[in-house]
Specification:
single chain, elongated, 40% strand, alpha+beta, 28% helix, 5-stranded antiparallel β-sheet
Length: 161
């Protein structure tokens, strides 16, 4: 089962290397990784996706908490959370396919961020399933290049009346 972990870590050289080393040393795979500084420049927020049963995820969380650079680890998959990815997709846009590419971008609320005589570059933001759906529909039109971010996630606030 896929899990998304939110890790608050010290923003220092080698912190990410130690986290990656923990995963590779124990034979765990990082499927997606995204790191950026928080509002406090001494801290970074790391979001990573990995797979495993509950016992493996529990072991990963315990091992992460042992690292000196790590302040907090939360498995956001255990509650309600918001998850997003972003992809830049360069698609062939010749005379006969331009209208179809524009139609697809409207349907999926993509932004066209670059236009050339023969290509459109689309920005797609949303859950992984949306990115996959856009890619599958654009493949027949001719995807020339694609770059994708890792998953970012946050727990939802509890709703009260």
């Amino acid at each position: 089962m896929r899990h998304t972990l939110s890790v608050l870590v010290e923003n220092s050289p080698g912190a990410l290397s130690r986290i990656a080393g923990l995963f590779s040393g124990r034979g765990f795979n990082i499927e997606s990784l995204c790191v950026a500084p928080t509002l406090d420049p001494t801290m970074s927020h790391l979001t990573l996706s990995t797979s495993g049963d509950d016992q493996i995820i529990e072991q990963i969380i315990k091992q992460l908490n042992r690292l000196v650079d790590v302040y907090k680890v939360v498995d956001v998959s255990e509650g309600e959370f918001v998850e997003r990815e972003m992809a830049l997709i360069k698609v062939k846009a010749e005379d006969d396919t331009r209208a179809e590419v524009l139609r697809m971008s409207d349907i999926f609320r993509c932004k066209i961020v670059d236009v050339s005589p023969k290509t459109y570059t689309l920005e797609v933001t949303g859950p992984e399933s949306k990115i996959k759906a856009v890619v599958e529909l654009l493949k027949p039109l001719g995807i020339k290049e694609m770059a994708k971010t890792g998953t970012i996630a946050m727990l939802r606030e509890k709703k009260t009346i």
